[in-house]
Amino acid sequence: MESCVFCRIIRGEEPAVWVEREEHAVAFAPLPDSSLAPGHTLVVPVHHSKDLVSADPVALAATTALAQRVARAMVGGIGATGVVLLQASGADAGQSVPHLHLHVVPCWPDDGTTHWPDPPSAHRHDGDPHAALAEMFE
């Protein structure tokens, strides 16, 4: 995708602070003003995928596997005692760049933050939402 900022970064047309580059996924630092913690890293599939819903299974598997290795590096390399994995698909979920990406955010006991949604969604669904989900697999 010509206009996708993550595709431009992957092609070397935009600067990046690289953590790792692999055949199907890459990891790099977010812009400094959007970093949530020291070491916060974005993990992105090389092949453009708009979001989790439309991602190619190979690209998704590679991206998730690289996110796990980045999390392990955070624990071993910068002493993180926990890691949060954030991903938003779609504008209503807060996705700001329309290219699948995972935020791997290291955490420590003294960082004073949590990354869990609060308050929970106010949306109400008629009926049992988990039953409706299960029906999609039948």
Automatic annotation (TrEMBL):
Active site: 101 (tele-amp-histidine intermediate)
Tree of life domain: Bacteria
PROSITE patterns for the chain: HIT_1, HIT_2
Domain HIT as annotated: residue spans: 5-114
GO molecular function: catalytic activity
InterPro entries: Histidine_triad_CS, Histidine_triad_HIT, HIT-like, HIT-like_sf
Motif (Histidine triad motif): 99-103
One Pfam family recorded for the sequence: HIT
Name this polypeptide is given: HIT domain-containing protein
An individual GO BP term: nucleotide metabolic process
